Amino acid sequence: MELGLKRDEIRLEAHNIEWQKEFHRVKQDIQKLTSIQENRIEHIGSTAIKDMVAKPILDLVVGVDDINNVDNAILQGLKDAGFFRLRVQRPNEIVLAKFTDKSFEKKTHFIHLVEYNKDLWKNLIFFRDYLNSNGEAREQYKNLKLAFSKNNNSGINEYTDYKEQFVKGIYKKRKQMLDERS
Questions:
Q1: Mean pLDDT of residues grouped by 10 in the chain (182 residues)?
Q2: First to last CA, the chain
Q3: Model-level pTM greater than 0.90?
Q4: pLDDT at 89
Q5: Which residues contact 96 (CB under 8 A, 6 or more apart)?
Q6: Is the distance from CB of 5 to CB of 55 less than 8 angstroms?
Q7: Which residues contact 118 (CB under 8 A, 6 or more apart)?
Q8: How many whole angstroms separate alpha carbon 21 and alpha carbon 141?
């Protein structure tokens, strides 16, 4: 298993069971080097979805109490684990990445640092769990990703935009389920 993509590169690979093993290895590293509890580190994204084609980059969501006041010791521990903060600006999220080497040209892992158990955390976990439990939705998402990559091997922003309506539709299902319960 070789993880990593260069900036703006789009390449999809068949699901690989090694991705789950790599997640557990990285999770242990994070736990050793930070005070983050085990239940606040989750494998998300397409590499966490069974039978899903995925970019060979592992996504993790890591939950903190307050995204606006992240303990410097946590950020230093993540850096010691090989994760560097990116300049990406997203609401309620800090994005970090791990690279293959000091050239910082090829990313292998992303950490999405978000507030634990808030909407963004819950949406990311719900998306993974929903696709893992719903074969029809999983197949739709797989076909959507393949349709984009058939004609494109670059354009990460375009790729994300192309999938956005589908992803938001799954998030909306979570909200509908919550509304039905209340």
A1: 91 96 98 97 98 97 96 96 93 95 94 97 98 97 94 87 95 90 80
A2: 45
A3: yes
A4: 85
A5: 78, 83, 84, 85, 86, 110, 111, 113
A6: yes
A7: 92
A8: 23
pLDDT value of residue 78: 98
Buried b (16+ CB within 10 A) or exposed e, 151-161: eeeeeeeebee
Q: Please give the CATH number for the structural domain made up of 5-181.
A: 3.30.460.10
The tokens describing 73, both together, are: 């010791």
Structure tokens at 131: 């696709």
Residue type at 113 in one-letter notation: L
Rounded Cα distance, 12 and 55, in Å: 5
106, 85, 100, 81: which is closest to 7 by C-alpha?
Answer: 106
Domain coordinates in residue numbering, the chain: 5-181
